[in-house]
Design a protein that fits this description.
This protein is an alpha/beta fold and about 300 residues long. The chain has ten helices and ten strands. It is about 40% helix and about 15% strand. The strands form two sheets. The chain has an eight-stranded mixed β-sheet with strand order 8-7-6-5-2-1-9-10, with helices on both faces. Strands 3-4 form a two-stranded antiparallel sheet.
Length: about 300
C-alpha cells in the first residue's frame, strides 16, 4: 500500500471513530449476476443473467467516489464475463484508479485468465482441495490452478467460504496458498445462509473449531488476510450489523453493508469476515484496529 493511501485511509478512520458520520469507505459494484458456474452455496447468481451497461457502471463508480468510497470491489456473478462497448473489467480497474480510488479489488471464480496487474488484489474463490472444491463448484480446480500459475502479477488472494462441505480442508487450502508464487495470502469467510443454503451453515462450535485451524495456519507462517482479533465476534455473530461504512450497488440499487440485509434475520447469521472487521474497527475496538493496520500494510 502506498503511504499516501495509508494516511488517507487512516485519517478517514480517525474521523469516523471520533465523529461517527457513517460515511462509506468501502464500496462494491456488482457488474453482472451472470456466472459460468452453479455453485452449491450460492444463491445470488444467474437470477437474470444480465450484463449491466458500461455507462451505468461508470456512473455508479462516480457516485461511490462522490460519497467518499476509496476502496472499491468489482464483483459478480463472474466479473470476467463482464464486457460492454469493448470495455472489460480491466478497463474498469484502470478507470477506477484514474478516478482516485485508492484500492481497487476484483472478486472472481478464477476460471478465466487472471490478467489485471492494475488491480491491488484479485480475490480468487478456492473452496477446498481439488475434491471438495469441485464438489461445490464443478470440475474447475485444475483450470483455476493453471490460471493462478500463469497470472500476470502476484496480486492474488485465495477466497474461501467455509461451510459444511469443506470445513475439513482449511489446512489444505493454507498449504496450497503457501506454495503458489502468485498468491499473496488466503482470506476466509463463513457461509452466510441465503435462502435455500441453510444446510451448509456452521454452528458456533464448528466456527470456533475453524477459527482455531485458521489461527494454527497463522502461527505456522501461512499468509492469512483476516484479523485474528475479530474471530470471537464472528464465532458468535456479536459484531455490530449492518456495517454502515460499507455499501453495495447493483443495477442502481444501493445497500448499506450488503444485499443480505434484505433477507429477514440473515444479518444475525452473517459470515462475511470483512463486514465484521470493518464494523469492529469503526466501533473503536483497539485490538482490531491494530490488527488491521498490520495486516493491510503487509498484504495490500
Amino acid at each position: 500500500m502506498k503511504l499516501s493511501a495509508f494516511f488517507t485511509l487512516s485519517s478517514y478512520g480517525i474521523r469516523e471513530i471520533l465523529f461517527k458520520k457513517h460515511q462509506p469507505i468501502l464500496g462494491t459494484i456488482i457488474l453482472t449476476d451472470k456466472c459460468n458456474l452453479h455453485c452449491k452455496h450460492c444463491a445470488v447468481n444467474n437470477i437474470n443473467g444480465i450484463i449491466y451497461p458500461y455507462k451505468q457502471i461508470r456512473n455508479e463508480m462516480k457516485m461511490l467516489y462522490g460519497q467518499g468510497v476509496r476502496i472499491l470491489f468489482f464483483c459478480g456473478g463472474e466479473t470476467f464475463l463482464w464486457e460492454d462497448q469493448g470495455k472489460t473489467v480491466r478497463d474498469l480497474t484502470r478507470e477506477a484508479k484514474k478516478m482516485g480510488f485508492l484500492i481497487v479489488n476484483i472478486v472472481t471464480n478464477g476460471t478465466h485468465p487472471i490478467d489485471i496487474p492494475e488491480a491491488d488484489l484479485i480475490l480468487v474463490s478456492l473452496d477446498g482441495d481439488k475434491e471438495h472444491h469441485n464438489e461445490i463448484r464443478g470440475d474447475v480446480f485444475d483450470t483455476i490452478m493453471e490460471n493462478v500459475e500463469h497470472a500476470t502479477k502476484d496480486n492474488i488472494i485465495f477466497y474461501m467460504a467455509v461451510n459444511q462441505l469443506n470445513k475439513s480442508t482449511i489446512g489444505k487450502v493454507g498449504e496450497i496458498t503457501r506454495r503458489m508464487k502468485n498468491v499473496r495470502a488466503v482470506s476466509f469467510n463463513f457461509h452466510t445462509p441465503y435462502p435455500g443454503t441453510k444446510a451448509l451453515s456452521l454452528s458456533a462450535k464448528e466456527k470456533a473449531i475453524c477459527c482455531r485451524k485458521i489461527e494454527k495456519l497463522m502461527d505456522a507462517g501461512v499468509p492469512v488476510f483476516n484479523l485474528k482479533s475479530a474471530f470471537p465476534y464472528l464465532i458468535h455473530n456479536t459484531f455490530p450489523v449492518p456495517c454502515k461504512q460499507c455499501v453495495v450497488v447493483e443495477n442502481g440499487k444501493v445497500w448499506r453493508c450488503g444485499r443480505c440485509i434484505d433477507v429477514p434475520d440473515l444479518c444475525g447469521q452473517c459470515g462475511y469476515f470483512f463486514a465484521a472487521e470493518y464494523a469492529l474497527v469503526f466501533r473503536c475496538h483497539i485490538k482490531v484496529i491494530l490488527d488491521m493496520l498490520r495486516t493491510y500494510l503487509k498484504y495490500i
